[in-house]
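#help-structures
NK: newbie question, is this the right format to request a structure? protein is Ni/Fe hydrogenase subunit alpha
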Amino acid sequence: MKDVDISIQNITKIEGHASLDIQVRDNKVKHVQLMFTENKRFFTQAIRGRSIDVLSQSVARICGTCSIAHTMCCIEGIEKALNIIPSEQTQVLKQLTMDGLMIRDHALHIYLFSLPDVFSVDSVLDFTPEHTHFLHDSFDIKRAGNKLSTIVAGRAVHAPFPGVGGYAQVPKKDDLKAIIPDLKLAREKLVGVLDEYYNCPVDYTRSTDFVALVGDKFDFLEGDIVSSDGDVVKEKDYFSHLEKNVVPYSQAVGYKFEGDTYMVGALARINLNKKGLHKDTKRDAKKYLRVFPSKNIFHNNLAQGIEIMHCIDHALETIESFDFKPEPKQTFEKKACEGVGVIEAPRGTLYYHIDMDSNGMVKEGNIIVPTQQNQINMEQDIAVLVERLLKTHSKEQIKYEIEKLVRAYDPCISCATHFLEVNWT
């Protein structure tokens, strides 16, 4: 395959719709074009003129699967703009809310979307009797995350309880204790899939920079922006270190950090802060944690599994130790100001910049989602992978490896389970 053109139309494994074109000449990849082809949704224009009273619920509709992440990041941006410091209890509730999100979101990806790649089958429907228990395991784990989100945040999707200055409702101790068996069962089931990913020989290694929010503990909400190259940036300064790259063939812009491509997501978080994981996770996942830091993108799946264990362990400890009591939401005065929220969504770092007037109406805003930040890095990974496989793999095998690589990034969870046909010319 000295000269070949590869075209994957209507990729359904990322947020919205995408296509992929690859041109190979003289056994070298000349270009990779990952095209986000869905019509622009104009997030930043849509939030203009919105009141901060309803903004966090409005942005939740940007993405059904990650609605909680958008809500939490928006709230953080508003609170930092207004100098609102959440109470200890509110911060704990936020952490539990993120735990529930990560458990259910990661479970769907690592079991239903990527695990078939480990067993070299097309989908979970092709699992052998030996492997069908993983399908049931996924439901048990996802159910535990959904229950936690519902009790703490009101719903697993478009959660109504979190708000600026506090939560509208505090979970009852009995309700929280009632889900302890679900969380423990999920943790028990998780070990099997961690073994599968740990033993899987798939290798998509390429040297790249990893970027994530890192604090003293493994926290999806607070910390500094840290890169594997040694950069440390305050949340409020994150955007000034990003370089927007207009991708002429795509409906979405890409980003570089300090002038270089980078990856965000679970792999970045574990690479940069595995020492901050819950003590029980570090004890029981010790074997798997030896893999990290890793430059193998396929290990993003293993990292997500480890994050599920961390979130379960954190939730169990919190439920046992924290005494939740009704407390009023903090009151605040609206004023002309601006603030930045940065959190770790399931797929990576999520950024919100909110500029409001004296009536609390949004004048300007900026939202940068993880998939945008990973776009250019994904293209470079695909180029390296294709060149590596040209002399040893068939066209169909190369297509399948590209699909596995893209799936490992987990660009979107609310999507189909396979790509459409690849056209070779």
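mod (FA): yep, format's fine, and the tokens are attached above. The domain at 43-384 is CATH 1.10.645.10 (Cytochrome-c3 Hydrogenase; chain B).
NK: thank you!
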